[in-house]
Amino acid sequence: MSFTVAIDGPAAAGKGTISKAVAAHFGFAHLDTGLLYRAVGAKVLHGADPLEAAQTLEPIDLDGEHLRTPEVAQAASKVAVDADVRAALVAFQRQFAARGDGAVLDGRDIGTVICPSADVKLFVTARAEKRAQRRLDELNGKGMGLAFADVLADVEARDKRDSERATAPLKPAEDAVLLDTSDLTAEQAIARAIEIVQAAR
Length: 201
Ligand code: C5P
Description:
By secondary structure, this protein is of the alpha/beta class. Helices cover about 50% and strands about 10% of the residues. The protein has a 5-stranded parallel β-sheet with strand order 2-3-1-4-5, with helices on both faces. The protein binds cytidine-5'-monophosphate. It is found in: Cytoplasm. Its main location: cytoplasm. Its EC number is 2.7.4.25.
């Protein structure tokens, strides 16, 4: 029997950290679906056609630190507006969710569109300033030397584009559990998420 955990939320809310920890705790596989859009965005920055890039995406394209830059994040959120690009990525995500050993998928539309009957749906949020500070620490920890104001602007621009698009906008599923991580440590947020998943098993 498959068991699917859908984790959605805005940029840098802690979805990745929580998803990895939940997957490790329960022995589930984890798919960061943002990487699909980032990989398409990266190809478009190199001149590719967005739809063709989405249709020909290979597992190897999802690898690499070059996908973690603010430029690629912006390019990802621009290609993610395109309904055809999104449609080209649906089958891969649903197949991943249906694996027999349990799966955690994190993104923007997992609970609403990709896996509407997921066993657990979490919507992870935090105040924009907190999210920007965390993303700043993460990127500058890798030596990028960015300014807080630029990272905040990047996060807010993506949230706006992701929330206002016509196809699969960022929003909590009606049956999602909201988890605001603004005033939680990573450990506290992870513990809460594990509790919520455990209760649904
Ligand atoms: O989660 P991450 O920041 O890596 O996502 C990059 C971008 O990809 C998001 O800003 C969003 O536009 C898009 N995305 C999406 N649907 C998903 C995952 C990501 O539209 N399920």
